Amino acid sequence: FRDYSPHNFKIVVTNGNGVNGMAKRLAKHLIEKGFRVGRLTNADNFGYTRTAVFCSQGQLTYAKLVADALPGDCDNRIIELSRPGNGIQVVLGSDMVF
Question: What residues have CB less than 8 Å from 14, skipping those under 6 apart?
């Protein structure tokens, strides 16, 4: 997992399922896996049913690393946005409660 560290990206973890403390638990999990978490947020609502990894244009490789580190299978839920940058955001859905 150290391959991505020179790129110095930080992950935003967003709680979209409404489970109290869920973003914090996932952030701790990602930090234990060697990732850097930049901040924790709440989504615009807590009705998200599926967890997704959003990435800026050109960041699919890093999004895949993050998705692989998540509990469960999120490979098919990586969404590349059309804007450039180095951002990765994980939006937690109700499918990921631990």
Answer: 23, 40, 41, 42, 43, 89, 90, 91, 92
- The answer to whether 96 and 51 are in contact (CB under 8 A) is yes
Q: Count other C-beta atoms under 10 Å from residue 77's C-beta.
A: 19
CA distances in angstroms from 46 to 6, 18, 40, 57, 77, listed in the order given: 34, 5, 14, 26, 18
Tell me the torsion sign for CA atoms 41, 43, 45, 50.
negative
pTM: 0.87
CB atoms within 10 A of CB 15: 23
- Predicted confidence (pLDDT) per residue in 27-51, tens digit: 999 999 889 999 999 999 999 999 9
Cα angle, residue 83 at apex, residues 38 and 92 outer, rounded to 5°: 45
Going by C-alpha positions, the residue among 76, 50, 72 that lies closest to residue 63 is: 76
